[in-house]
């Protein structure tokens, strides 16, 4: 049976068919839907972990226990997980283990761009890359079998286009004995205790394994030569293979599904059989450099960009500039592509609990606002412009401490560090511990909207639910006080004055202050109240526009005294959060029930 599936849906199906028993991860676009789809398969334990390292260690433990396991993350999550899977390359496992990373070329939802293919040679582990949904499913079984045959984790690298594009998938069955109990654990310190005395003995074995894996790469069916016109031989992997096929339908191709270690024999066979070799790949010249290291000349990043996505039109333009294809072909394709579409800046949703925080922060002078990745990074944009720094998860606390020890407060400026509730549990506790221990004099804020909102409203330890049902909620205030923070404040996110008072008290306090701004994301509570409307008392002062709410716009009605256009509220978009009514100096915004 065939079914239309996205890459993430297909990958989840592949885990089911391959006999995976444990799946862990941390949400992050474009990987989030993998676990969200796995949870439908009751044979697989699924868990949102507190961060990627924790998730990876849990998956490693499951594989040690004898259960096939996977862990998922977005590209920046690999940096967090690396400490865990590097040692697993040395120990091996008792069952298959797959490290899934979804890269984000073009940084559509990430703070930086990175090519995680480099982790394969860095950690000395094999790597697979699917090109479409069918491969996304099929490669899971291949990865599991490879992991068990070679006693090593397998890096499974996908990307945004594979993750979110849909294509037909031939479904299979789960041929696995789910009732079978794992074999009893037998202590084997030489294998599983990763101390120097044992790891040193394994180091040569890891290199020997990589050499043998090259032969596997030469023979494995997912690496294949597709002979065509012998003038040009193209090496490609992932979705770029399909783009290149569209442009060069008659060329010879080496289609790679296993991209580390590379199939040196197939590459040399290709080079010997064509006049020119061209490597087409997104981001870094990962394949190209290895091909050139074999002494094979090839076209690559001398014509293709090293950053961003590499789509069909990008490949065509680069090849036309290099004289490989005529410009007429590019013009034909461009005529089919919509041109001049207007851009639209992202904004906080109507009813967002973060709005009152950034409205208040934007009014404070001489304040350094240190933040990190999440919905709240939209506070950096118009109309707030209330962020000075945004970085990795937890950096809102860690970098704020750095500003302090750097002496910035001697300039008369104060510091406030901001993280979200999910980020706090992910990587905010350790910098907080550091600040408590070192006597920091900084104000910190957790914007608690009761979910991991930006990546799709996943649960975290601060909520009562897990992927599989009911969990134990961790109270942020109790945790913070237990760590040693003495000055803890709480504010209602939908009470503008409450938030303003908490911020001012925190900034004026001598010593470490911790503010918890509580208010659920609208899409979690969905507590829609009657919409608000603008009365004739509005004089177009524009205060409500400083909230950056997409439900509020300028009308065509001009106030006779001020000459300014009055505000209007879209009743379809308004969710009745009341914040605009609270900040209106003329009380000209009222509930539709009261109007």
From TrEMBL:
This is Indolepyruvate oxidoreductase subunit IorA. Keywords: 4Fe-4S, Electron transport, Iron, Iron-sulfur, Metal-binding, Oxidoreductase, Pyruvate, Transport. The keyword Iron-sulfur applies. [4Fe-4S] cluster 2 binds at residues 549, 574, 577, 580. It comes from the Bacteria. Its cofactor is [4Fe-4S] cluster. One of its GO terms (molecular function) is indolepyruvate ferredoxin oxidoreductase activity. Catalyzes the ferredoxin-dependent oxidative decarboxylation of arylpyruvates.
């Amino acid at each position: 049976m065939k079914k239309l599936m996205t890459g993430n849906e297909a990958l989840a199906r592949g885990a089911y068919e391959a006999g995976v028993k444990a799946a862990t991860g941390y949400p992050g676009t474009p990987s989030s839907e993998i676990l969200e789809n796995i949870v439908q398969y009751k044979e697989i334990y699924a868990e949102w972990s507190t961060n990627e390292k924790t998730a990876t260690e849990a998956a490693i433990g499951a594989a040690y226990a004898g259960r096939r396991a996977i862990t998922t993350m977005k590209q920046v999550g690999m940096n967090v997980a690396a400490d865990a899977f590097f040692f697993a390359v040395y120990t091996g496992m008792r069952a298959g283990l797959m490290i899934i990373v979804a890269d984000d070329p073009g940084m559509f939802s990430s703070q930086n761009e990175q090519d995680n293919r480099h982790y394969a040679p860095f950690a000395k582990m094999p790597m697979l890359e699917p090109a479409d949904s069918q491969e996304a499913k099929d490669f899971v079984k291949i990865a599991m079998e490879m992991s068990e045959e070679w006693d090593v984790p397998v890096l499974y690298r996908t990307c945004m286009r594979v993750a979110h594009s849909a294509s037909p998938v031939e479904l299979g069955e789960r041929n696995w004995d789910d009732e079978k109990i794992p074999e009893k654990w037998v202590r084997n310190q030489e294998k599983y205790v990763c101390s120097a005395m044992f790891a040193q003995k394994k180091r040569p074995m890891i290199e020997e394994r990589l050499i043998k894996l090259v032969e596997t790469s030469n023979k494995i069916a997912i690496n294949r030569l597709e002979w065509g016109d012998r003038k040009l031989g193209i090496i490609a992997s992932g979705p770029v293979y399909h783009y290149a096929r569209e442009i060069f339908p008659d060329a010879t191709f080496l289609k790679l599904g296993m991209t580390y270690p590379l199939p040196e024999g197939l590459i040399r066979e290709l080079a010997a059989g064509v006049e020119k070799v061209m490597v087409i790949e997104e981001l870094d010249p990962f394949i190209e450099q290895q091909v050139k290291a074999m002494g094979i000349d090839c076209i690559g990043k001398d014509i293709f960009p090293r950053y961003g996505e590499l789509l069909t039109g990008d490949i065509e333009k680069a090849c036309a500039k290099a004289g490989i294809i005529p410009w007429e072909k590019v013009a034909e394709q461009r005529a089919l592509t919509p041109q001049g579409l207007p851009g639209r800046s992202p904004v906080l949703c109507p009813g967002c609990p973060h709005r009152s925080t950034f409205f208040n922060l934007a009014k404070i002078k001489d304040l350094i606002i240190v933040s990190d990745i999440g919905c709240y990074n939209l506070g950096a944009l118009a109309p707030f412009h209330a962020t000075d720094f945004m970085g990795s998860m937890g950096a809102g606390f860690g970098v704020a401490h750095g500003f302090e020890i750097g002496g910035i407060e001697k300039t008369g400026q104060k510091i406030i560090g901001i993280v979200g509730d999910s980020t706090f549990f992910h990587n905010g506790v350790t910098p907080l511990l550091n600040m408590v221990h070192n006597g920091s004099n900084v104000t910190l804020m957790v914007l608690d909207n009761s979910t991991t909102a930006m990546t799709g409203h996943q649960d975290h330890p601060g909520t009562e639910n897990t992927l599989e049902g009911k969990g134990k909620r961790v109270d942020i205030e109790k945790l913070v006080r237990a760590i040693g923070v003495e000055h803890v404040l709480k504010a209602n996110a939908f009470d503008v004055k409450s938030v303003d008072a908490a911020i001012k008290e925190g900034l004026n306090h001598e010593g470490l202050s911790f503010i918890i701004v509580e208010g659920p994301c609208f899409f979690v509570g969905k507590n829609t109240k009657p919409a608000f409307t603008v009365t004739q008392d509005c004089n177009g002062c524009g205060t409500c526009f400083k909230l950056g709410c997409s439900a509020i716009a300028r009308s065509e009605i001009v106030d006779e005294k001020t000459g300014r256009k009055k505000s209007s509220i879209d009743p379809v978009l308004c969710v009745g959060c009341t914040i605009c009514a609270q900040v209106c100096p003329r009380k000209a915004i009222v509930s539709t029930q009261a109007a």
